[in-house]
Design a protein that fits this description.
Helix content: 40-55%
Largest sheet: none
Distance between the termini: 24 Å
Number of strands: 0
Structural class: mainly alpha
Strand content: under 5%
Shape: globular
Length: 83
């Protein structure tokens, strides 16, 4: 059901998210979870850690303090533009 996201634009957005995460000193997963954690329309982020190291991005997300500009920029990575 997600094949429509297997495209150049999606992978470019993930690369931009990864670069921003590196600049902030967190993992890509930590930044993504941090953004979701503070999104007003998201009531729960479901994560399923299987090993202790899977908790690291969760800790990063909870400790992350994104500026309003950074938060908006991340949101723009994954929104579809109108033609």
């Amino acid at each position: 059901p997600y094949l429509q996201y297997w495209n150049k634009e999606t992978f470019e957005a993930i690369d931009r998210l990864g670069a921003m995460a590196a600049d902030l000193g967190v993992s890509t997963a930590g930044l993504a979870l941090g953004w979701l954690h503070r999104h007003p329309d998201i009531t729960a982020s479901i994560v399923g850690p299987r090993r202790a190291e899977h908790f690291v991005p969760i800790g990063e997300a909870l400790a992350l303090d994104l500026s309003a500009d950074a938060w908006d920029e991340i949101g723009c990575f994954f929104t579809e533009e109108e033609d």
